[in-house]
Amino acid sequence: MHTDRRLLIKVGIGVAWVAVVLLGSLPLHAGEKAKVTPKPTLGKKPPKDAVVLLAYEPGKKPTFEHWQGTWKASDEGYAEVSKGNLLTRQPFGSMRLHLEFCVPQTPGKSGQAAGNSGVYIMDRYEVQILNSHGVKPGAGDCGAIYRQVPPKVNACLPAGEWQSYDIEFHAPKIDAAGAKTGNVRITVVLNGITVHDNQEVAGPTGAAKNKKEVAKANLKLQDHGNPVRFRNVWLLPLED
Q1: Using only C-alpha atoms, what is the Rg of the chain?
Q2: Nearest-angstrom CA–CA distance, 179 and 124
Q3: Dihedral (CA of 124, 125, 128, 129) sign
Q4: Over the stretch 122-169, which tens digit does the pLDDT of each residue have?
Q5: Among 33-37, 46-50, 151-155, 200-204, which stretch is predicted with the lowest mean pLDDT?
Q6: Contact by Cβ (8 Å): 192, 38
Q7: Are the CB atoms for 66 and 234 separated by under 8 Å?
Q8: Cβ–Cβ < 8 Å for 96, 106
Q9: 131, 159 Cβ separation under 8 angstroms
């Protein structure tokens, strides 16, 4: 039986369009990578009950009354890493945390030497900050739970651009005797992209790995010898 080749072409195109409608896009070809479009949540406003750790107001230097330590303060409204870590005066447990950061351009440097800093929740669980734009992310790259879990995707912008973290953190469960009965869980949204979704964390990370786990502790922004900038840092304590 003779079949019109033009009919087969039309049928094939129709099947392809059905696939597009049902699946949202055609399958990736071998060797292609799924792409994400970072959309930083810059300027996100703190809710009513939030603790504003670094207020952001263009034209006004941030202050450090919530911190042990001070960094360089700019009239553009940001703080720049210098003179050691920043550690909050107040301890916190479970929280929603928002912060904005900008890693410097680092010509001739790569890996851990490139724009390194970190957000140490409870001074124990580090969410890494690094110039990781365009690399296949590992457990030491931006968005990683440092040395434990790499981000699901690379959601980083190029160095010199402002980026955002929105983190929901649930502290470890500690009983009356001080023993841990449940692990940390954390969701990390980097530049609007979820890179960890309710991820369980077995214990303290990196340089904090030998610290005892507790119900509350101080938040730390790390000085790793790179002039990383921070602004609009606030957190909302949560009751688990």
Answers
A1: 22
A2: 16
A3: negative
A4: 999 999 999 999 999 999 999 999 999 999 999 999 999 999 999 999
A5: 33-37
A6: yes
A7: no
A8: no
A9: yes
Gap between the Cα atoms of 14 and 53, Å rounded: 56
| Rounded distance between C-alpha atoms, residue 192 and residue 41, angstroms | 6
Note the pTM of the prediction, 2 decimals.
0.84
Q: List pLDDT tens digits, range 54-97.
A: 999 999 999 999 999 999 999 999 999 998 999 999 999 999 99
Q: What is the β-pairing status of strands 95-102 and 229-237?
A: antiparallel
Task: Quote the pLDDT of residue 77.
Answer: 97
DSSP-derived letter for residue 170 is: E
Do the beta carbons of residue 56 and residue 100 sit within 8 Å? yes
How far apart are alpha carbons 94 and 78 in whole angstroms?
A: 25
Half-sphere exposure for 184 (CA within 13 Å, toward CB): 28
Q: What is the CATH number of domain 31-237?
A: 2.60.120.560
Q: What's the sign of the alpha-carbon dihedral 84, 136, 164, 52? A: negative
